[in-house]
Amino acid sequence: MADIKFKAGPLGDGEVESISLDLYHEMERENLGICLACGSEREMCEPDAENYPCECCDERQVAGSLHFIITDMIH
Ligand SMILES: [Zn+2]
User: Fold this and answer.
1) Residue 11: is its pLDDT beyond 80?
2) How far does residue 31's CA lie from ligand 1's centre (Å)?
3) Is residue 47 included in any domain, yes or no?
4) Number of domains in the chain
């Protein structure tokens, strides 16, 4: 199973829809954030990080692990 599922958008791949439980645990262990726009990982993200800038796509949509619990985004 893919660690990140994307919503199907009008232009193909859209935003992140959900992440796997394995990836969630990895985020907690490693303090990773995930960009909701492109799915890239970012280091040095606290669990409650919101709207951090993404080095990959320049959107400010990187979220910490807690975001995925609160918004029920774990598959
Ligand atoms: Zn991004």
Assistant:
1) no
2) 17
3) yes
4) 1
Q: What is the pTM of this model?
A: 0.90
Residue 75 lies in a domain: no
* Token output for 75: 């598959």
- The first and second tokens of residue 14, run together, are 């859209």
What domain range includes position 36?
4-70
Is 45 inside a domain boundary? Answer: yes
Tell me the pLDDT band of 14, cut-offs 50, 70 and 90.
Answer: confident
Q: If you measure from the C-alpha of residue 34 to the centroid of ligand 1, how many angstroms do you get, rounded to a whole number?
A: 8
The b-or-e profile of 5-25 (16+ CB within 10 A means b, else e) is: eeeeeeeeeeebebbeeebbe
